[in-house]
Specification:
The strands form two sheets. This protein has a six-stranded antiparallel sheet. It has a three-stranded antiparallel sheet with strand order 2-1-9, with no helix packed on it. It is α+β, with helices and mostly antiparallel strands. The chain has a single domain, classed as Beta Complex (Metal Binding Protein, Guanine Nucleotide Exchange Factor, Chain A), CATH 2.170.150.20. The longest helix is centred in the N-terminal third of the chain and has 10 residues. Helices cover 13% and strands 28% of the residues. A hairpin with a 6-residue loop joins β5 and β6.
Length: 135
């Protein structure tokens, strides 16, 4: 899918600052950085609601699909909306993983692994800094 929202780095930085995003949000979402495990604000967050892309507001996950994977990052078993998440092969760090991106704006979200709970068997391991919670 082609991202429909494109901005300069300066525009993304200004938007994230305006939203009060975490300090690492730009590096995570636009440079594919990863926050340290067990440090994200949504890792132990269990309120009911939806998780959206911090950059563009696209709905990504429902709280009903969130589970404690014990990995240090918020984990979900499925996307809230089909097509909301784009996947790409990531060969960084000397391994092959599947990177997840917001299909609407291209923000790096995290990675998806095939070791999650049934029925999907998927674990969307996300950076809190890439998410915005809406009750």
């Amino acid at each position: 899918m082609t991202q429909t929202i494109k901005k300069t780095d300066a525009e993304w930085k200004a938007l994230l600052a305006e939203k009060g995003a975490e300090k690492v949000a730009f590096e995570v979402t636009r440079r594919a950085a990863t926050e340290r495990p067990y440090t994200g604000k949504y890792e132990k967050h269990w309120a009911k609601g939806t998780y959206a892309c911090i950059c563009c507001g696209a709905k990504l996950f429902d709280s009903d699909s969130k589970f404690d994977a014990g990995c240090g990052w918020p984990s979900f078993s499925q996307a809230a909306v089909p097509g909301a998440i784009e996947e790409h092969v990531d060969r960084s760090l000397g391994m092959k993983r599947t990177e997840t991106l917001c299909a609407q704006c291209g923000a790096h979200l995290g990675h998806v692994f095939e070791d999650g709970p049934k029925p999907t068997g998927l674990r969307y391991c996300m950076n809190s800094a890439s998410l915005d919670f809406k009750p």
